[in-house]
Amino acid sequence: MTQDREAGAGESRGHCRLVGIPVQEGAGRRGCDMGPSAYRAAEIVEVLGELGWTVEDLGNLGPDTAPLVMHDNPALKNLPAIVAWTRSIASAAYGASADAFPIFMGGDHSLSAGTLSGLSRRAREVARPLFVLWLDAHADFHALDTTTSGNLHGVPVAYAVGIPGFEGVYPQNEEPLPAERICMLGTRSVDPAERAALRNAGVTIWDMRSIDERGIVACVRDFLARVSAGNGLLHVSLDVDFLDPDIAPGVGTTVPGGITFREAHLVMELLHESRLVTSLDLAELNPYLDDRGRTARLMVDLVASLMGRQIL
Which of 211, 200, 204 lies closest to 227 in space, CA to CA? Predict the structure, then answer.
């Protein structure tokens, strides 16, 4: 799906803020902290500028001071660090979303605990509901007491919707996100505890079988229709492992059978045409595992499709 990089040049599309979030403590492998630099090296600033966006790169975020927090689950890894990151990211997401389109360049997917918290606060202030499209092979719906790996990139959606057990450990979630406003697309790896929690939660899940049977366009448009009907703000959280590892090897949580190159671009183009997306996460890029920047370039190309690049 080769597209004209100059498409949209000269147009004024709006203001975009980039926030680098070099968090890696939530993942099982090191390397995600290099993600923001890889996106910049893949020319995300230049690509957005050529599409007509005014780009403000806010640089890389750092965590707050790590608090003294504990939990009964001995498997949990780097809990104080992730709590510190979540507090910092929530504040940054709230600030960056003021009159701009923020792109949060991670970093592992634990970052979304902070982005969803900060964006929910912003949505409350503008009196519009926040919806979330979760593009990920995983549900990331573990509570703190159900994760067996202890990797805290597996809990952000559960935290965002207010699943019990985060109180007194994570920052207070002042604006829990109704599960009915979340759509997971491309899901293909769900742990038993997550499956049980999701069964009656109200999250819309289009797994790979659903996509194969219904087609990815129908799945995406169903959710976009709900966002539009609700006059919602739409946050897209894009994990590298949403994509098939044959085209996106630079991630530590590869799951075979993922979204193809053509399907991924189609999803981004549908999102652009909807004019509903107001913010974006880019999660789990691990340049250490990548093939000479191949995954980073693909992710930037997908951002370009979302932000207005078209064939004609």
Answer: 204
